[in-house]
Structure formats: C-alpha cells, structure tokens
Amino acid sequence: MPDKTLENLVQELKKGTLVLAVCSQLKDKHYGYSLVDSLNKQGLDIDKNTLYPLLRRLEKRQILDATWSTKSSRPRKYYQLSMYGHKIYKQLRNAYNSMHKQLQCMMEE
C-alpha cells in the first residue's frame, strides 16, 4: 500500500484555501457547473460534491447572493458575492497574503 501521507496533507492544505478560491471567482455571477469549470481550467480541481455544500454554507452566512434563472431549458441557481461577501473576501485575501508572507519567511530561514 503506497504512503498516502503527502496526498492527505496536500488535500488538507487545499481545503484551507477553497473558500478564498471560490470567492475570487464570484465577483461575477456563476452557476455551479460554470464555477467548477472555471476553477478546473485554472488548475484547481474541485468536485461538484465539494463545491455545492460550500456554496450553500457561504450563502447561509450571507457571503453569497443566490438567484434562480429560468431563461434556459433547466433552471439554474447563480451565485455572486454579496456586499458583505466582498468585504469578507477582501479581509480573507489580506489574511491569506499575510500568512503567505509569514510562511515564506519561516521556510527561507
């Protein structure tokens, strides 16, 4: 059985940045599949079974606004950062950048 330690640790690291990655893409409206596609094209593999619960949590916390569109043959739920979500995203991005700088300094020692 191969050692899964690195794979598991990378997954944990990825989970810690998913909210930031998702919010970065929701300055404009996206429905679930278009968001999965957008993130995957940028190299962040995310499964719909991971994304949809995250979107629901962010909507519940009022970070995202959600609207239904029935213009196409299938109704789609579109997500976008709320006004509050824009503030949270900016603060989260600043916190991430600060931690990133701190980690870089520690790793360069």
Question: Could you give a short description of this structure?
Answer:
The protein has 109 residues and is an alpha+beta fold.
Task: Outline the secondary-structure elements.
Elements: H1 5-15, H2 18-25, E1 30-31, H3 32-41, H4 48-60, E2 64-69, E3 76-81, H5 83-108
Antiparallel strand pairs: 1-3, 2-3
Attribute tags:
5 helices; 109 residues; alpha+beta; three-stranded antiparallel β-sheet; Arc Repressor Mutant, subunit A
Notes on the structure:
- This protein has a single domain (5-108), classed as Winged helix-like DNA-binding domain superfamily/Winged helix DNA-binding domain (Arc Repressor Mutant, subunit A, Orthogonal Bundle).
- The model has no long low-confidence stretch (mean pLDDT 92).
- It contains 5 helices and 3 strands; from the N terminus they run H-H-E-H-H-E-E-H.
- It is an alpha+beta fold and 109 residues long.
- It is globular.
- The protein has a 3-stranded antiparallel β-sheet.
Strand order of the largest sheet: 1-3-2
Strand content: 5-15%
**C-alpha-based Rg, rounded:** 16 Å
Class derived from helix and strand content:
alpha+beta
**Mean pLDDT rating:** 92
> What distance lies between the first and last C-alpha atoms, to the nearest angstrom?
35 Å
- CATH topology, what is it called? Arc Repressor Mutant, subunit A
Order of helices and strands: HHEHHEEH
Number of helical segments? 5
**How many distinct beta strands?**
3
What's the CATH first level? Mainly Alpha
The CATH H-level superfamily is Winged helix-like DNA-binding domain superfamily/Winged helix DNA-binding domain
Instruction: Classify the helix fraction into a percent range.
Output: 55-70%
Given as residue ranges, the uncertain stretches (5+ residues, pLDDT < 50) are none
| Total discrete domains | 1
